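We modelled the chain as a single entity of 131 amino acids. Its sequence is:
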Amino acid sequence: MTIVHKSGNICKNADSLSRWALANTPENPEWVPQEEHHIEGICVTDIGTKVFNQAKESYKIDKNCHFLFQLLMKDLKDPSLSSKLDEIWKKAYYEGRFHLLDGILYHSTKHTCFMSLKDRTLINTILNEFH
């Protein structure tokens, strides 16, 4: 399996990992000749409440997340709060791209929805755990 780092499409400073599984052929350096393919192992991981609590705490540090969190908690378009957002965040907010679920911010695009994380240590922990 090859892991390739790609910068995020929308947020260029965001991380994105893609996995490209290599075929079990002689061209693959890890090739193992076998008649049947066996599952070598399965890893099951669960995000604990500690990770969610860290995500919630990180929103208090980031200016945009802090105001966005307040706006979504009120569930209304408060001009005095939304004017404090950076333009790109304000635009996405007015387009309805941010959601708040169980105290966690999510950003949606046309076909996907992502958990919004601002703490670099937390991002690295999740990437390490799930990739």
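As a brief sanity check on the tokenised model: Confidence is low (pLDDT under 50) at residues 15-19. The longest strand covers residues 2-7.
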